[in-house]
Amino acid sequence: MNQRARLSLVVIQILIFSLLFALFGRLFYLQVAAAPKYKDAALSIQSRDVITPATRGMIVDAYGVPFAMNRVGIAITVDRTKIDKLPEKGAVVLRNLSDLLNIPYADVYQKTRLCGELPAGEKAGCWTGSRFQPIPVTKEADPNLALQIVERSDRFPGINASPIALRNYPEKAGVNASHVLGYVGPLTEEDLSGANGRSYFRSESIGKAGLELQYDEYLRGTPGIKTVIVDRKEAVTNTAQNTKSVPGAHIVTSLDVRLQAAVEKALGEAVRGAKSRGNYADGGAAVVMEVKTGRILAIASYPTYDPNAFEVGLSFEEAKNLYSEKAGVPALNRPIQGLFAPASTFKAVSVVAAANAGYNLQGTYDCPSEVEVGNRKFQNFDSAALGRMSLKKAVAVSCDTIWYRIAFDEWLRDGGLKPKSSKNDYFFNAAKGFQVGVKTGIDLPSESSGRLADREWRTRWYAQNKDFYCNYKTRAPKNQQTPFLVQLAYENCLDGDKIRAGDAVNFSIGQGDTVITPVKLAQMYSAIANGGTLWKASVAKAIVKTDGTVIKKIEPEKLGEIPATKSTIKFLQSALREVVVSGTAAGVFSGLPVAVSGKTGTAQVFGKNPNGSAKSDTSWFASFAPSDSPRFAVVMMVSQGGFGASTSGVGVRKIYQELFGTNGSRVNPDQAIYFNGQPPTSIPKISPNTKYKGEK
Amino acid sequence: MSLLSSRVSYRRASRKSIFTGFDPILTISVGLLLLFGTVLVYAATRDWYAANGLDPQYYLKRHVINILIGVVLAWGTTVIDYRLLRAYTPIVWGIGVLGLIAVLIPGIGSTVNGAQAWIGLPGGFQIQPAELAKISIIVGMSMLLSERSHDKDEPTHRDVIQALLVAAIPVIFILLQPDMGTVFIISVAVVTIIGASGAPLRWVVGLIIVAILGSFTAVKVGVINDYQVKRLQAFVDPNSDSQGSGYQLRQARITVGSGGFIGTGLFNGPQTNGRFVPEQQTDFIFTVAGEETGFLGCGFLLILYLTVLMRAFGIARRSQDPYGRLVCTGVIAWFAFQAFENIGMTLGLMPMTGVPLPFISYGGSSMFANMIGFGLLQNVHARQRG
Fold first, then answer.
1. Residues of chain A that touch chain B, judged by Cβ-Cβ distance less than 8 Å
2. ipTM
3. pLDDT over 90 (residue A574)
4. What residue numbers bound the domain in which B318 lies?
5. Which domains are delineated in chain A?
6. Is residue B164 in some structural domain?
7. Where are the membrane-spanning stretches (chain B) (predicted)?
8. CA–CA min distance B261, chain A (Å)
9. Helix %, strand %, coil % of chain A (to 5)
10. How far apart are CA A187 and CA A183, in angstroms?
């Protein structure tokens, strides 16, 4: 062999060994370095999970009476693994089913398709689960039809009827509670994407609003998972794992079925009453809070909706209605999402501000019909000149002009339009102390924080809106070019970044840009009633497993103290009592055998309704009782409800009547909501059969 | 002394007559490959055939029969003096070409996976003439390039052109089937043989350029079938054909990767038993090794190939004459590139072509050809110097 031939053999050898070396390298990457990734991929190819949803936990009131439970429905299900093997993939069987159940064939077809089988944009109603699970066509079949299907398995191969758990809101004592409870519904692709930080199994039902959403991870339980191994033809060859479902835990709330029903009734009557007096009255909210814990005893929103409608399936019209302005936006949870100017109920904050600024709470002040603030005149409510009076009386009769004067003086003292560096800001700081503009922390989704229109807010607001107001004539729509609004825009453009005298005086009487939610006001009045502590609002008291063990107790949580001395709080309590004894709410509460302290509020609202009418005032009544040792705070708000006393005051009185069990001018403890006047503190036994007091 | 020495030489000769100088390491390595292959073929088919109510040992039995025939062929190839084989070379080549022509005749040849490459035989057996053509090309080219009608030490241009013609005629018929995988492997073997023959280097460079240009125009002009273009596209972009070639390649990679370091254990691979990879007893048999025996098993398999090739290089180096050296080089190139193409395709390093894994894949023609190739190596070894 010559030299060249020898060399060429070496070259070939090197070439071939480097190829083998490349294979080694690639093999190492696939089987060692990237093996976990490929193992996962293989598992998803081979295995299919069959999910059995767990029984959802109940939501009960403080006595254990169910608000939300489960009911048995009859599901008609389609077994795709069987149907698909029939001629035309079982189209004939599905047609027979469609005829029997009286459901259009297109719907039956759509419901039994896996979402992945359908083109994008045509996935509505598709099945989010797997092919190996029975796919429900309906969950509420007529038992007779179900029987026909079971008996005629020759006509309906692959179709089954089986009992299924449905979410049910039993509406005991006529309670609705839809906003606080929420509802459950099927998973959406968005839920599955993990955008909300929770992971789900396909074909589970999940909480969509209210407590159902807030405590979904407890209520939902853990579904049973059967993992089957399939081959290329999707035939099951093996079962890899089979875990039983673990039922969801129950949520014990501090609510009470009877009180909740009474509050809903009182609120509904208040709104309808306001309407009958010519107000637009498009909605309302009512909250009952335990003053020493922040626990919510009842919380209602008006208008409401039927929580049971979701399990049956909303029609398009019903779904649209939930958000329609004409219907009053029933989906809006007003006690925690409704933002309204607090009006005179806010004077409780102003009293604290005045006390901290050194004003004598026992002194007398003049209540003229109007006060000149800068170059503008601010009128008293109804322009009444009431003369000199004690501050207590001023709170009782809701004099505005006293507050204008104090707020204006303080504004001037802080430097007016050229604020000093060492400002006292008594009013803003008092509101801050009450945590206005901060959430109550209630355990319900989507609470609004409200807005404290202080100097910082003003600066931010101006930065965002300066452009609009400085070019108002070109930017604003034609119908908003009234002389008043044009003048307002001019002023906003000029010095909208500053707290003006008008802003300061409006702030003192709860008008202007400061807005709060009803639950916030309940928290603030609870603090006044309990001696100054702001409690976190809470609905759930405990999470209890099905065997009765308590997983988690939700204890009251202190959020802070209001910036008021004991004597200021005492004065405030007596002044609020005076409102009901001799002030603006005296007439509404006359003859009630329970001592109530409270404050009316009538907030002016600007703007127009869809029908063109000017918006009516927001009616507020914030209160606590019994006055000498307060236990309950009750707040009602009727949006566009007119006067505070005549609309909300009347509603609140009805709530107290139920709460304390009054019978004319006497208290009848047997009729009271709570057996010994106090909400129960122990965790009740939970059973779907627990009855409320007086249930037959 | 002379008596003694003659007795010794007699013993040697008699031992030769039974084992005929078989290279033991080469023989053991090929034996282990055959054993490994048998287990893999069984693992690839047992559960699926049992699940579908068929004989679970259908492929196992046939594979063992193929191996036994192959062993006989290898033994026969080994014991024939290759100088005699050289005399038969034109006949072997001629039969190979006739087989390739026959396969193209409608009614005789049958089409599998888009290539008209098979001749059906009674009893459900099929032969693939292209596999046997590999041998005739290697043997034929080696003959032309090693026998000199002139006094020069190296092949002349004329020798090279003659050798190329010997290869080109069968290749044209294989192109007509078309079986691009076999054409690729033959092409590599042809270039390697010419390179090893000591022919002018520009032939080697020129042939590589022609091969690249040829495959490029073949795709452009459309000589290559649609399914082959798809396979190439799937190699470049595995998502382009997610149900066809792309699916196969993706599944193959997942199956190999999911085996991890030690594998799932023989007969325990869910990917294999679920038959997610098609053709897993033939072209994609490496996925079974990958899933069920893991990196350890696959590494062992590669080491077996490495051993076979190293022994073959040794045989080539020690060969008495250029003919034996060139035959060995041709067989080395064939085994090496066929194994590389097959495993490379499974691992996603090479485009998809339907070539079996030497000594492992199920398939008679391929097994016979491999065993004859193995016999050729042993033949050269038996007659090597010193």
1. 1-2, 4-6, 8-9, 11-13, 16-17, 19-20, 22-24, 26-28, 30-32, 34-35, 37-39, 41-43, 45-46, 229-232, 235, 237-238
2. 0.90
3. yes
4. 22-382
5. 51-221+244-248 (3.90.1310.10), 343-533 (3.40.710.10)
6. yes
7. 21-44, 64-84, 91-112, 204-224, 294-314, 326-347, 359-377
8. 6
9. 40, 20, 40
10. 13
